[in-house]
Amino acid sequence: MLFALMASAENVKGTVKDTQGNPMPFVTVSILAQDSTLITGAITDEKGNYTIDVPARTYIIQASFVGYHTAFGGPDFVLHEETERLKEVEVKAKKPLIERQMDKLVVNVSASPLSAGSNGNDILRRSPGVRIDKDGNITVNGKSVEIWMDGKPSYLSGQQLKAMLDGTDGNTIEKIEIISNPSAKYDASGQGGIINIKTKRNMMRGLNGMLSAGYGGMYFGDVNRWLNSDMVSLNLNYRGEKTYTFGQLTQVFAQQDVDFETGRSMPETATSKAMKNYSKSGYNIDFQYYMLKLGNDWYIDSVNTFGFILQVPYMNVRQNILNGRNYAYTINGSDTLRSTTTTDTRTSAPQHTANLNFTHTFDQELERELTVNVDYNRYNTKTHNFQETNYIGLTNQGLDIHSKQIVDIYSAKMDFQTKFWQTGMIECGAKYVLSSTNNNMTTDSILDGAPRPSATSDFLY
After folding, report:
1. pLDDT band, very low/low/confident/very high, at 87 (cuts 50, 70, 90)
2. pTM of this prediction?
3. Confidence band for 105, pLDDT divided at 50, 70 and 90
4. Which of 320, 226, 336 is nearest to 281 (CA)?
5. Could you tell me if 401 and 385 are in contact, meaning their C-beta atoms sit under 8 angstroms apart?
6. C-alpha dist (Å) from residue 53 to 26, 83, 137
7. pLDDT averaged over the chain?
8. pLDDT at position 446 over 60
9. Is 96-200 in CATH node 2.170.130.10?
10. Contact 413/432 with Cβ under 8 angstroms?
11. Mapped to the 3 state alphabet, what secondary structure does the chain carry?
């Protein structure tokens, strides 16, 4: 029998104890919808306490821990040990939805209906401690994090990261690892936390694939404009006796149209004249994202694996002002100033990422393995920003800005890890990294339609 909780506030607080009244740390507390779909969750602290932020609505609260019966109800729980003894028993293993491992929190996406009809962003939003704001920035427990894919850094952020997650079908995700305190084997930029998204490895022999697509649209009748977005993703993999080859092709498109008007009226007073001002503006954003991913794992034998991964994401964004921007100031019924502004900004960001990797497993039970990775990443961004303001009856002023950023990152690392006493983990390794950055920006001033001397800045690091 499931007991549902009506949350009256925006956070749920409670404690988890055993039958002796002792607090239980590291218990998984999950907030589920009425259809048992995971909404969010948390892990109890050393005193058995938990706090979860949720909107006010009806939920099912579940507490689970290895060796104890799963409990429903809350917000306070008492967990009972599984002490029944049977003469004969058939054991069927099932992965818990959320489990606490030695160095990370794991959401087993494939063990739940969470992935159906969802993309990478949807699943991350429901993971314990993860928050995604309206701009796509991802935090864990309030700290910025790095997103990794299959144990490799994605080198993506902002719009590209959001597009990649939107284009990742939930059915292709095996699990999500949330590492709040990364060890030294991870890049320094991920010290706030790492989210590692592990995709499924199809064990069926032969060629397998999946095609997914989505469309969203909204029509605004007062301005007669559409807002559109679509996503198409194709995943193919081939499993042979000694190899596993996989590929992904993703396309994401989004369009925004925004119009707004503002006005202000000030009546005449003893010390000032009547004044009115009015402005009208509109802009359009077209966003396009493409991702090509290819890879292969070669199983040399049962303990040695060699592989490569190649990723080529590409982003193109254009933003421009529609019909100009108009400002009109009226004093005593006569126009004194009117201006129009036009802007056009175009950004293209091709990227190339390549990885060679080798893994040798000494002992699978102890997670004792040696890994070697060689990586190369080039991030190239080009932006053209044109702005011009036309003051009626006066001068025209504008800027024509061309900027470019090229970042090259080379790295090679070797890591060894092993468990000891089943309660600790030893990691050691070596890493070499070389990065180079080239920023270039050229600015042309425009006065009455004629360009003025250019200003150029270069930054090499």
Report:
1. low
2. 0.66
3. confident
4. 320
5. yes
6. 18, 34, 18
7. 80
8. yes
9. yes
10. yes
11. CCCEEECCCCEEEEEEEECCCCECCCCEEEEECCCCCEEEEEECCCCCEEEEECCCCEEEEEEECCCECCEECCCCEEECECCCCCCCCCCCCCCCCEEECCCCEEECHHHCHHHCCCEHHHHHHCCCCEEECCCCCEEECCEECEEEECCEECCCCHHHHHHHHHCCEHHHEEEEEEECCCCCCCCHHHCCCEEEEEECCCCCCEEEEEEEEEEEEEEECCCCEEEEEEEEEEEEEEECCCEEEEEEEEEEEEEEEEEEEEEEEECCCCCCCCEEEEEEEEEEEEEEEEEEEEEEEEECCCCEEEEEEEEEEEEEEEEEECCCEEEEEEECCEEEEEEEEEEEEEEEEEEEEEEEEEEEEEECCCCEEEEEEEEEEEEEEEEEEEEEEEECCCCEEEEEEEEEEEEEEEEEEEEEEEEECCCEEEEEEEEEEEEEEEEEEEEEEEECCEECCCEEEEEEC
Position 5 scores a pLDDT of 45
The pLDDT assigned to 306 comes to: 95
- Residue 4 has a pLDDT of 44
Q: What is the pLDDT of residues 41-77, one digit of tens each?
A: 788 888 899 988 887 777 888 888 767 888 998 789 9
| 76-113: b (≥16 Cβ within 10 Å) or e | ebbbeeeeeeeeeeeeeeeebbbbbeeebbbbbbebbe
Given 2.60.40.1120, 3.40.50.150, 3.20.20.480, 3.40.190.10, which CATH number is that of 1-93? Answer: 2.60.40.1120
Q: 1-93 and 96-200: same fold? A: no
Count Cβ atoms below 10 Å from residue 415 Cβ, excluding itself.
19
User: In this structure, are residues 182 and 154 in contact, taking their beta carbons and an 8 Å threshold?
Assistant: no
d(CA 324, CA 311) in angstroms, rounded, equals: 39
| Residue tagged 């190649």 (tokens) | 310
Amino acid at 158: G
What residue spans define the domains of the chain? 1-93, 96-200, 203-460
